[in-house]
Amino acid sequence: MPGQGGNSTDGYGHLQLTTLPGWRGFVTEIPALPELLPEAIWSGLADDKRASYDDDRIDHHSRLLVVQTPTIRQVITSGRRLIQMNKNAHYGRCGLMVSGPARTGKTTALTQLGKTVEVIHRRRHPNSSSDIPVIYITVPPAATPKMIAMEFARFFDLPISTRSNITDIADAVCGVSTDAHVTLVTVDELHNLNTATRAGAEASDTLKYFSERIPATFVYAGISLERTGLLSGARGEQIAGRFGMVRTGPFCQDQQWTALIAALEDSLRLHRHRPGVLTRLDRYLHQRTHGMIGSLLWLIRGAAINAVLDGTEKITKQALDTVDADFTSQSPRPPAT
């Protein structure tokens, strides 16, 4: 059963979504906005309490809250619909792919789907604590069939020895998945599958094998999957015939973009920041980030952390100018969707 392998003794398993403890920690986490103290109390804090208070706000700004973008809503709706469609299917289950450029929110959409499905399952089955309704794995670079199987085994923390062959691992994974009532399997970084190589093609076949053996809905995410060769050839035709696709991309400079900025600005916990400053900089922020949500988060999070560290407690255009942009937003502008 899961948890008997003892592979998470390094103390960092809770940080990895690709382990069962890490995934469950993510699912049960309820993001909370830290309290912003009144000015009089804040200015009178002793040094140790000020440091603790600032650390809490820095931690908050390092993550910020997940904003329910149209893409996230579409992925959640599509994923839940497919789960219902596949519920009584014995074969030929359909799946979903989330595809787009880097920094466009694919992983966030994938993990939010998984979190939503698991929260609903826990609410409907409060006495089934041994259930594992969702699996989350990532595809390693240059993945082989055994590496794919090991990612599943690692999520469950199965006691796999170095002598175990892929058949043994697959049987163990499929057995646990069935016993634990897995209903959704989320696979991230699918672009790491190079189907132009023999190992990559066989790894793709391994994923297909798992999708046939595990009675669950499979959802994949990766960079520009339609350009990777994954959907070409005989193998690709099978995938394309069973999987729908949600495409992610940069935001246009429109009301949705401004609403996204407003939601992020509303979650800031800075003492001297004036509401509306960031929304009035929507054009500037779009130019800096090319409309990429990941790049926008990078910029605002960095500026907010700087504002706490340097004591300015506010974000201005000048402050944003000092934050180095991620490489994606410095590259040639991708087409907006």
Word description of this protein:
The structure is a single chain. By secondary structure, the protein is of the alpha/beta class. It is 49% helix and 8% strand. The protein has a five-stranded parallel beta sheet with strand order 2-3-4-1-5. Helix 8 (198-213) links the parallel strand 3 and strand 4 (217-223). Helix 3 packs antiparallel against helix 12 (293-309), helix 6 runs parallel beside helix 7 (166-179) and helix 11 packs across helix 12 (293-309).
Please describe the topology of this protein.
Layout: H1 20-28, H2 39-43, H3 47-63, H4 70-86, E1 95-100, H5 106-124, E2 134-138, H6 145-156, H7 166-179, E3 184-188, H8 198-213, E4 217-223, H9 233-242, E5 243-247, H10 255-266, H11 282-289, H12 293-309, H13 317-321, H14 327-330
Parallel strand pairs: 1-4, 1-5, 2-3, 3-4
